[in-house]
Amino acid sequence: MGAKRVASAAGTAALVYVALSGRLSSPSGDAAWAARRPPGEEDEANKGEERWPERAPATWREAAAVTARTAGFAYAETLGKWPLGDIAFGISHYMRIQGNRQHEYTGSNCVPLKGPGVRQELIGLLRYLRLCMFFSKKPYEVFLEFGGYGQSDILIRKSKSKLMKPAFTVVRDESTKCFLLFIRGATSTKDRLTAATAAEVPFHHSVLQNGRRSNLVAGHAHCGMVAAARWIADQAIPCLIKAVEQFPDYRIKIIGHSMGAGIAAILTCMLREDNKLSSSSCIAFGPAACMTWDLAESGNDFITTVVNRDDLVPSFGKGSAAILRTEVMASSWAPDLQEQIQQTRILGFVNSSLNFMRSHIPFLPNQGSKVADVNMLLSNTPVEELNLSSDARATVQKHWALSCWSSVAANRQNLESLVNHTQGMGIPALMSTYAGTDQNTDKPITAGGPASYSPEEPDSPRSDSEETNHEEKATDQVHLEQLLKSLRSSPIPSQPHQLYPPGRIMHMVVLPSPKEPDTGKQHDQDGVVAIYQTPRSMYGKIRLARSMIRDHYMPRYIETMEMLIDKLAEDADDDTDD
User: Phi first, then psi: what are they for 125, rounded to 5°?
Assistant: First the structure.
């Protein structure tokens, strides 16, 4: 036990030493990755940024480099961008005001899936999902026993995962005449590091028709999943080609859940470029958003994606997270939190005590003043490009609610909508609309808001105070007009590539059950289950829900799928009776 601890401490010390000594981006490592880089993907190699690896690391040094860079990337995309208040309170508040959004997956642009054919397809999908769960969660022998496989049916077995090298297996399934390739999801720390390497890298694949390449689809995909898919391809392609030659009537199915599903989709695109493996298809359960629009659309004929209820993972990516950050910051969660604090006796007493102390001790900081300055307003735009005066910067700090502009400026559509919305209205009206303030006062409308008290308020007569406030408003208006002008004229920063779930998407939803006490039909206590084929555009936005994590687990997928199969059987019986 002591030796293991010493070894672990030594490994950690080595990693820290390599990270701090600046040896992570070694020329030899970069050259090795560049040598393995697929042809035709050098368009972004010389953009000034260090390239992300597109293949699994071959040495411990490369693995340490990827680990350290992934840690920095994960921090930059989470705590580096999200204020702690938004993480602790803003998301919860926005989730509460957003409500249940499952009904959006049943809109006019969504196609309901019904009938015996859909039920039979779901029965087959349920078997694959159970096999996938047994491979991911159970000992390998239990997986073989559940699937009815013998030792002769095992083509490849890789049970131990490493960074960008996930566990997978290939078995021969006589009942379906398929070679099944199962990829395990993120179950270990190394798997989670692979999933966290979420930078976008160039990726393309050729579409084959009648044995010839008819089209080249190019785009971007998830870095860690692309590297993992290429590693699996190197391991599995020789074995699969030999197996297909021995059993020419067998097809290839690649199956995965979560991160494993995203890797499976990318791997399928790679395998189909080989004429001998062009029968490859993919079943992806709750796949991560892993590829850009054109790549995802190109898989409609050979990739089937299944999404359960409020599962967060298929819509979670850098682009959708940026949109969510805009909405959370603009949701004005601070007054709601203040109201909740006041309604709680102990917290209300603490809050009142703090306000009293701030009113009598000038040097105590006011939480309302702890806002983003102009450096934060355009997080991706250099401040020197704004040409703002110091007075204008002070005006921005004075109006605390302008902090929500930090993410607005990072999204071109939101910025243009705000600018167009504010045309023809004065800055005081703008502050009333976006800062939650009244047009006749600089204080928030909500009582007890974060900026509801100003210690510098003069004790002069009311007429002098009104005159002073009027002059301050006129000055603030000039400065804020300068800010708005700078926002309009400043260059819009490049946006992260929006990633989507791949292929044809089938979304299982559970809606509130209608009040039919006399029908005699048995429904789940949560509501009525249904399945729809949904458009990909719906997964460019994150829809928050309290069950968004729980609905991602495979047992929840199995539960919903069983409910759906029973519901379709009931509908078939009703049609027969009619």
Answer: -65, -35
Among 545, 98, 97, 90, CA closest to 337: 90
Pair 409, 386: CB distance under 8 Å: no
Contact 337, 368 (CB under 8 A): no
* Sign of the torsion formed by the C-alpha atoms of 301, 306, 312 and 313: negative
Contacts for 145-148 with beta carbons within 8 Å, 24 or more apart? Answer: 147/171, 147/173, 148/175
Q: Measuring CA to CA, how many Å separate 96 from each of 90, 195, 249, 263?
A: 10, 29, 53, 34
Which of 90-94, 140-144, 215-219, 515-519 bottoms out in mean pLDDT, i.e. has the lowest? 515-519
Average pLDDT over residues 511-537: 70
Report the DSSP beta bridge partners of residue 252: 179
369-387: pLDDT as tens digits? 333 333 444 444 444 444 5
Alpha helices in 253-317 (DSSP H): 259-271, 293-298
pLDDT at 376: 40
DSSP line for 398-463 = HSGGGGGHHHHTT-HHHHHHHHHHTTTS-HHHHHHHHS-B-TT-SSBSSTT-TTS--TT---S-HH
Q: What is the pTM of this model?
A: 0.70
Output DSSP code: residue 87.
Answer: I
